Amino acid sequence: MLVAGARPNFMKIASIIDAIKIHNVSIENSTFDIQHLLVHTGQHYDNSMSEAFFRDLELPRPDIHLEVGSASHSVQTAEIMKRFEPVLLEHKPDFVIVVGDVNSTVACALVASKIQYDSSTEGSKLITHNSGVHRPLIAHVEAGLRSFDRTMPEEINRLLTDAIADFLFTTEESANENLKREGIPKEKIHFVGNTMIDTLLKHREKAQQSKILEKLGLINLQLKTENSNLIPYGVLTLHRPSNVDDDETFKNILEALLEVSKHIPIVFPVHPRTLNRIKEFGFENYFDFLPQPLTLSPQSKVLRTKSSSLQPQSSNGLKSLASNLQPLTYGLHGVEPLGYLDFLCLMSNSKLVLTDSGGMQEETTVLGIPCITMRENTERPVTITFGTNILGGVQKEQIIGAALSQLKKYDGILPNTMISTQNSALNTHHAMSPPLWDGKAGQRIINILTNQFIKQS
Ligand code: UD1
């Protein structure tokens, strides 16, 4: 049984489902098929936060949907637990696979750790533990990451899930060290690589067919430098409670981003939490555009709210794809959250990523796109040692300094110019990928779990 609930979970689950399919068609594995059920907790439920990912990743429809929706952490976690317990008792899976560090991860792991199957039930291959208790084995994918910051809800979710999981599948060496230091027996720790990167590598080429660059006005046919008419731009994501829930902190970050956006236009797919805060704090004026989902026209994903004095000449060639849009220019441009392929296309063609997301630190590492993480710490240090990531903190001057130095270091873009250059970073990922980020993590996980199953059944 695979559990997914929030946006970053869907990419991780997709790779494991692919690996199950490979197992089931492989002649070598003809002894048994893996039956799997996908549980969606409903932690994320908007079309753009959930369904769009199922479509893009060609994920099967969830077999079970818990439909929990948004609530406080405790209510959301408790509600998932309440609704997941009867599902486990009905289906009695041998393994429960949870991914990442969201509330759905810890909630379902906790239920699985305390459930007791009725051992006399026919039809299920029950696994007996030392204590004689029958329950599923719990696999945590992306185990061991630690920010050492217990004010982050995700850090609590990671610590608790790792403490009760039977299989801890790790993405980087620091995670192995963290788990050993916490006293997790080394037989439980399996360094397998990164399922989110499996999915990225699989979809990377396809994503280039996305029309998002045209739709957002990022192609300027009047620009013809080094075979590209792509306007250089940065991508921003921001949604951590510590960054957006406090108005002073959020304002400070926005001031920095506004400054950076005077040097390079910044496209900002706005997370629902962040959009709520922008409205609540009255921060709309920082943006040249903001998404207004209720009034969106089908052709245009962004609406202009104020004109920019730096607007370049319009280009006739854009009419069919982005009839309302001029080529994008300096400023912070909010757009709706994007689906997986559109976002991957946007990110992989950008000059700079500014983020507080965990996953994007990893994705930019593989894509070779300069990344600034607007946090004081990262649970993914390999993205700094191997990758392009630097910690930009949350102070205005620090973020600006980091952004400008990243722009110069990687691309030689001179601040405050709109020259277009080819994105050479796209070709460099092999040299920069951390160990085992090779597209095969999902298969390693399934091999380890099937071997365990064969051993115990
Ligand atoms: C959650 C994860 C975070 C992950 C992020 C990715 C936890 C503790 N946090 O944070 O680790 O990086 O997902 O997005 O699990 N909302 C909607 N529609 C949706 C989902 C959310 O409008 O489909 C709004 C609601 O107002 C909700 C708020 O966003 O209250 C926050 O959503 P929630 O799932 O609680 O946490 P995230 O901030 O998304």
Quick structural summary:
This protein has helices at residues 7-25, 47-56, 73-91, 103-114, 153-164, 173-181, 195-207, 212-215, 241-244, 247-260, 272-281, 340-348, 359-367, 382-385, 396-411, 429-432, 441-456; strands at residues 2-4, 38-40, 64-65, 95-99, 137-143, 167-170, 189-191, 234-237, 266-269, 332-335, 352-355, 371-373, 389-391. It is α/β, with parallel strands linked by helices and 457 residues long. A 6-stranded parallel beta sheet has the order 10-9-8-11-12-13. Strands 4-5-6-7 form a 4-stranded parallel beta sheet. A 3-stranded parallel beta sheet has the order 1-2-3.
Characterize the structure shown.
- The chain is an alpha/beta fold.
- It is 40% helix and 11% strand.
- It has helices at residues 7-25, 47-56, 73-91, 103-114, 153-164, 173-181, 195-207, 212-215, 241-244, 247-260, 272-281, 340-348, 359-367, 382-385, 396-411, 429-432, 441-456; strands at 2-4, 38-40, 64-65, 95-99, 137-143, 167-170, 189-191, 234-237, 266-269, 332-335, 352-355, 371-373, 389-391.
- The strands form three sheets. Strands 10-9-8-11-12-13 form a six-stranded parallel beta sheet. It has a four-stranded parallel beta sheet with strand order 4-5-6-7.
- Helix 1 packs across helix 7, helix 1 (7-25) crosses helix 17 (441-456) and helix 4 packs parallel to helix 5 (153-164).
- The longest helix is centred in the N-terminal third of the chain and has 19 residues, at 7-25.
- The protein is globular, with a radius of gyration of 23 Å.
- Bound molecules: uridine-diphosphate-N-acetylglucosamine.
- Uridine-diphosphate-N-acetylglucosamine is lined by residues 6-8, 43-46, 49, 70, 101-103, 153-154, 239, 271-273, 276.
